[in-house]
Specification:
single chain, 28 helices, Rossmann fold, alpha/beta, 4 domains
Length: about 750
């Protein structure tokens, strides 16, 4: 089925820049190439006011992060079938233009992105944007073979990249007639056009003119174009005026003509038709695409250029002449030779004209339309992965007479790293959930003993880090360890029988004070989960309820202070174990009867699910390379199994609260990331050892199988299996539904 509506995003005329012209031309060419499709434009604004044509249906102020999310929602409402993005770092807000990614994550249509700048080596900030841009886009378009090589060398998959030439309008206007129209009948015309800025090298061209004019006194050098708006805003017309003074000083002012105007497409190519030589004296090699060069080649001009990247490629095989950077004498020699050899000039024009046929806009639009068809063909996901049955064999191998070891070297315990309360609490929780496993009682006994020893009698709080020689390395293990230990004891107190159950209940009774005075949001969220799970088994004491109300209130205050329309979250960043925050509110709202708290948690978790979903539908945890701040590129790699467990557990809590089977499906999707449904199609679960690898790097797995990762796998599987067995579809209360609608 053909695309019914195509959106093109970029700068747009009458904004004065090359991308604005490209976007305008591409939209018009696509409208002719796909007459059954409605082609609309989303224009980027830079704070100025522009009188856009009717095709521009949406605009985005580049520094307004929320505007990107609003534009994505508007495009979704328009039911576009394809989004064509014109990418240049500087036209979007955020670090290296990262605000654009907020829109692309949210829009539902397939995305094809054209890169107008490709560097041989992006800096770290730029590469983060490019990496996510490539992940979100079905295809990446570049306009030179060199750009293909640069991207592949920096990790962009070759299968993602398509090479399509820069488009160009053409004219059949005659040279002599157009010269006469310009008042240059009978003269030799050298032309340079484009927005004027110091990097264009016009001063080099003017310095080359005295020798040229000595041999060809009928020569005019026409510099066509307004000063770049950004240059004019900062420096006025100082650069143009300096060029005019230079021409006077060199005695060539009568041979240099400055047409200070931004010309439309038709006027531009008519001026190009008049030219005998098109000159591009750029000063920098690092230009991967040049629209003016594309125009000149497509219109069959004899081109003289400095050897910037695009020129080296486009002018190969005799389609133009390259001259060194910053060398007026060499440029003058080349121009004199070319002007003195009409036969050579004509041959060059014919080669350019023949090659340039593939650059005419109808041909380029046809290539884009064909690529859109390819981009819409989504790769089907592999069949559902069979979830392994929960087994504690590997977990038991990580446990000695003291507790479970924190880390591993590949598949054996790393004794030098010792033990933590965090991991022993997780192992106790798993032993409760996997009570039928033959290793469960021994693991529960050992980890209960560890938690008993970890509870510091001097301050009523748990220590966390223990060396292999059983020395405590801290006296207060931090807030997460307190909440996690109490939650595991809640599970053990109500899930273990006999002596183990009695021991857990006694230890829990002594541990409740460890939940007091928590200040960190994740610790408060885990405490809410523990309090809610305890309240499901026994009537909560007033102190429990008061503490739960306090922590829930603080999370809601955080949310109200930080959330925006495009970032509905508790903090202005995502870091680790993110799903614990909404999980805490959902559990609290469900058990203690607070629909608004539950609704906020559900809305935040729903947004997090979208953040953690790749374009192909796979789970995509927030990578641990760095914190992910609102408006930045998302860290895609070094995803940790702990993020899977946090998500699985939160999704299952949302399923308990609402009965919506979509949450159960979300939990399974996250769990399958560990089993191989991830960006590398590599399982972190090791069926040989029955452990779990510690993370997913850009091109490989972390081979170590530590306690946190392995426990995250088996806790996720155990909770999911139990929830799937008990799942009974039902409808959430109308109070919750209404609260969710208001929050979202």
């Amino acid at each position: 089925m053909p695309v019914r509506r195509i959106a093109v995003l970029g700068n747009h005329s009458p904004r004065q820049c090359g991308i604005a012209t490209f976007t305008d031309d591409l939209a018009q060419a696509l409208a002719h190439e796909t007459p059954d499709a409605d082609v609309l434009v989303v224009a980027m604004n830079d704070g100025r006011s522009y009188d856009y044509p009717a095709r521009v249906q949406l605009t985005i102020e580049q520094d307004d992060l929320d505007a990107y999310a609003a534009a994505a929602d508007a495009l979704n409402a328009l039911q576009i079938g394809m989004l064509s993005v014109q990418h240049e770092f500087g036209i979007f807000g955020g670090p290296s233009g990262s605000y654009l990614l907020t829109l692309l994550r949210r829009v539902r249509a397939p995305i094809v992105t054209t890169l107008h700048t490709v560097l041989e080596r992006f800096n770290a900030e730029q590469m983060a944007v490019i990496e996510e841009l490539a992940a979100l886009s079905a295809k990446i378009v570049v306009m030179s073979e060199r750009a293909v090589r640069f991207l592949v060398a920096q990790g962009v998959p070759r299968s993602k990249i398509a090479f399509i030439h820069h488009g160009a309008p053409v004219t059949d206007a005659g040279r002599d007639a157009e010269k006469a129209r310009l008042g240059l009948a009978g003269r030799t015309l050298i032309l340079t056009f484009g927005l004027l800025s110091p990097n264009k090298g016009i001063d080099t061209a003017i310095r080359a003119l005295p020798d040229v004019i000595r041999d060809f006194p009928d020569t005019t050098y026409l510099v066509l174009g307004a000063t770049h708006p950004n240059v004019r805003a900062q420096h006025g017309e100082a650069y143009r005026e300096g060029l005019m003074r230079l021409a006077m000083d060199l005695g060539v002012a009568s041979h240099v003509r400055f047409d200070d105007k931004f010309v439309d497409r038709e006027e531009l190519i008519r001026c190009l038709a008049a030219a005998d030589v098109y000159l591009i004296p750029y000063l920098s090699r690092e230009q991967i695409t040049s629209g003016t060069l594309a125009y000149a080649v497509a219109n069959g001009k004899a081109v003289v250029s400095t050897p910037f990247w695009h020129a080296e490629e486009l002018l190969a095989e005799g389609r133009g002449i390259l001259t060194p950077f910053h060398e007026p004498a060499a440029l003058g020699t080349v121009l004199r030779e070319l002007l003195g050899d009409p036969g050579r000039r004509a041959a060059m024009e014919q080669k350019a004209r023949t090659f340039g046929e593939q650059m005419h806009w109808p041909s380029v639009a046809h290539s884009y339309a064909a690529l859109f068809d390819v981009a819409r063909q989504r790769r089907p996901l592999p069949p559902a992965i069979r979830l392994p049955a929960v087994t504690l064999d590997y977990v038991a191998s990580m446990v000695d007479g003291t507790g479970i070891f924190q880390h591993a070297v590949l598949g054996i315990p790393n004794l030098t790293e010792g033990y933590t309360t965090d991991d022993n609490a997780r192992a106790l929780h798993l032993a409760v959930l996997a009570g039928q496993d033959p290793h469960a009682p021994a693991i529960a006994r050992c980890t209960l003993s560890f938690l008993h020893h970890a509870l510091n009698p001097d301050n009523g709080r748990f220590r966390n880090f223990m060396a292999y020689d059983r020395r405590w390395l801290d006296e207060d293990g931090g807030e997460n360890a307190q909440a996690r230990a109490v939650r595991a004891l809640v599970a053990a107190a109500h899930g273990l029988d006999g002596m183990l159950g009695r021991t857990a209940r006694e230890l829990l009774r002594r541990s409740w004070p460890a939940l007091d005075g928590l200040n960190h949001p994740r610790a408060q969220a885990i405490a809410l989960i523990a309090l809610a799970e305890a309240a499901e088994h026994e009537t909560p004491e007033p102190a429990w309820t008061a503490l739960a109300d306090t922590y829930a209130g603080r999370l809601l205050q955080l949310y109200d202070a930080a959330a925006t329309p495009c970032w509905p979250w508790f903090e202005r960043y995502l870091s680790y174990s993110n799903a614990k925050l909404p999980h805490g509110l959902i559990a609290y709202g469900r058990v203690f009867g607070h629909p608004q708290a539950m609704a906020t948690g559900l809305a935040a978790l729903h947004w997090l699910e979208r953040q953690q979903t790749a374009r192909d539908g796979r789970f995509l945890p927030i990578g641990s390379e760095r914190r992910y701040h609102a408006g930045e590129a998302q860290p895609l790699w070094d995803g940790q199994p702990i993020e899977v467990y946090a998500t699985v557990s939160a999704d299952l809590e949302a399923h308990r609260a609402t009965g919506d089977a979509a949450w159960l499906a979300g939990a399974r999707r996250a769990l399958e990331w560990l089993l191989g449904r991830n960006a590398l199609d590599l399982p972190l679960y090791d069926p040989e050892t029955q452990g779990c690898r510690d993370g997913l790097h850009r091109d490989s797995l972390n081979g170590n199988q530590g306690a946190e990762s392995t426990l995250a796998l088996w806790l996720s599987a155990a909770e999911y299996h139990r929830a799937a067995q008990l799942s009974v579809p039902r409808v959430a209360s109308e109070a919750v539904n209404e609260a969710v609608r208001r929050t979202m």
